[in-house]
């Protein structure tokens, strides 16, 4: 129970649509979401596949919690090979589409091949078909979604790309319910390369569990005693904008392309400013927290901006104008661009100008050029052709590598690693590149009680957090519920109808993380790629409690070595045979 | 008994749908839920709506076989008499009577005085009025 045991496979080249059973052996080892997705991808993808070729696949997944009453279980996983960097990519997107997919009778959808013409996929209660999408091509995600709901009914849920995905911008995202994204690493470009504009899902079936009374009791208790408590309720009262002030105070707020760790204009982007502009709260399916802030500021409106956009698209671009950031967010959402990579790329271009390397017309703090950039990128017009390269691509073309804030080609999110050294390790070792979703040690370092300016104990901390998130995003639970492995096991037991132990889940998290590493190793990544931009090692922080701090390269190397040893990886960062045996990965 | 709804407190999580279908149907299926709550972006704004049984008993009045009786505004269906004609669902002004393929109408019975939708609402948007 907990699974539908049904996989939808769509060959976009031939138009063939088939249904197959879920691989139960893999589901037992990887559960769902991120873990199961990477298992399927690892098994089915030829090594060296061009991410934008018809050989790549993109997989949409639910997990055993999806569609049930387990709180915060509403997200959909998306797994593919990233066109931004060729690494394993997993993202998740909130809203209701994951539950809808299960109610429609599927655990997951595998999209493969490449359609000769623009199409969209409709899944309605077990039946799936490809529809002509020429009339949607070129249209933004807001318009696309509205049009598809008109055609397929208000109860349907839509996942779509905007012009950025169609034009294969390597940091194009997928959008659902207008404002929720599978943001990072270019999943939208994979859709675009396959000529698929959208997936529409409508389901009126249900999800059964092994022990309904047992689950209702366990989930009600978990919600009242664990979820709706001070540990998590910040997500309701503030949402992620709360982090603006926390980052400012702890000196990790990215400012002017990470040249500063505090921003003089932070107050205009902080939670009190956001609360003043709040026009509503919105949750994903089954979430009791409702982190989504519907914001109306002047003529601009969006669900968001989240902290990553406020920091990377705000302070990091020298923008202290909330209305401008809301506009930027809304533009990126509609065009189908990841706000983090877009904001980081703009910030890098701003510093290139400042340093006299290349002038793409962008200046720190200049709102009008900042707001022009997303559309130019999405349609590859003018300087948008250049900005579409992303930070690494731009630095390779023009220089400035030492301040190109990216790892493995993925641009930095909103946490300054010189002010949170464990976060540096997290960025360096996350499978998809500089990523805040693989591990988030800032909660304990910059925002918490642990010394942020030491590498002591950080290797273990980061590894543990990576296992925790890998498992959580496989079951699929939201990041914002800080629940224990024990509680996850208590909730999973009545769903599956077998006793689940916390240790089994923790081990699975480690297994999933190692499989991601095996995927990347197979694609040619080595320990040399587990590094950070020179700025982090060489330039002292400006502003905040950590002023003057660097993350010394030798300390970083020491931390990375310790991390490899703890993981049972060799000096090149490749998992040892014993490790693979222990994790049932041979 | 009556259910009350405060839209400004609702976050649109649909835990009410999941609780209703889970408890009453032994499966999680929002389309079988005996209340409807929606939080959607429409016409440039966030629109939150709810349809709840008001206890008006229009269903009992509309039932051609007398299968629905009501006491204190709580409708009760006698499955032996019900023919599954769907007149009750047609008559329901709130549109919350579910007619699944098995032909047996699902009516909100306020869970015997302790509605599970209220019990699960995380933000206190749904309350029970006696």
TrEMBL record, chain A:
Q: Which UniProt keywords apply?
A: 4Fe-4S, Iron, Iron-sulfur, Metal-binding, Oxidoreductase
Out of the domains of life, which is the source? Answer: Bacteria
Tell me, what's a Pfam family for it?
Answer: AFOR_N
- InterPro entries on file: Ald_Fedxn_OxRdtase_dom2 (IPR013984), Ald_Fedxn_OxRdtase_dom3 (IPR013985), Ald_Fedxn_OxRdtase_N (IPR013983), Ald_Fedxn_OxRdtase_N_sf (IPR036503), OxRdtase_Ald_Fedxn_C (IPR001203), Tungsten_al_ferr_oxy-like_C (IPR036021), W-dependent_AOR (IPR051919)
Q: Which family does it belong to?
A: Belongs to the AOR/FOR family.
Q: What is the native source organism of this protein?
A: Desulfocucumis palustris
Q: Does the keyword Oxidoreductase apply?
A: yes
The top of its lineage is: Bacteria, Bacillati, Bacillota, Clostridia, Eubacteriales
Ranges for domain Aldehyde ferredoxin oxidoreductase N-terminal: 3-205
Task: Name the needed cofactors.
Answer: tungstopterin; [4Fe-4S] cluster
| Stated name of the protein | Tungsten-containing aldehyde:ferredoxin oxidoreductase
Q: Does the keyword Ribosomal protein apply?
A: no
From the Swiss-Prot or TrEMBL record, what is one GO molecular function term?
oxidoreductase activity, acting on the aldehyde or oxo group of donors, iron-sulfur protein as acceptor
Per the UniProt entry, the signal peptide is: none
UniProtKB/TrEMBL annotation, chain B:
The record places domain 4Fe-4S ferredoxin-type at: 1-20, 44-69, 73-102
Q: Name one GO molecular function term.
A: metal ion binding
Record PROSITE patterns: 4FE4S_FER_1, 4FE4S_FER_2
Give UniProt keywords alphabetically.
Answer: 4Fe-4S, Electron transport, Iron, Iron-sulfur, Metal-binding, Transport
SUPFAM superfamilies recorded: 4Fe-4S ferredoxins (SSF54862)
A Pfam family reported for this protein in Swiss-Prot or TrEMBL? Fer4_4
Recorded coiled-coil stretches = none
Q: InterPro entries from the entry?
A: 4Fe4S_Fe-S-bd, 4Fe4S_Fe_S_CS, RnfB_subfamily
Q: Which PANTHER family does the entry link to?
A: DIMETHYLSULFOXIDE REDUCTASE CHAIN B, OXIDOREDUCTASE
Task: Tell me the protein's name.
Answer: Iron-sulfur cluster-binding protein
Which source organism does the UniProt entry give? Desulfocucumis palustris
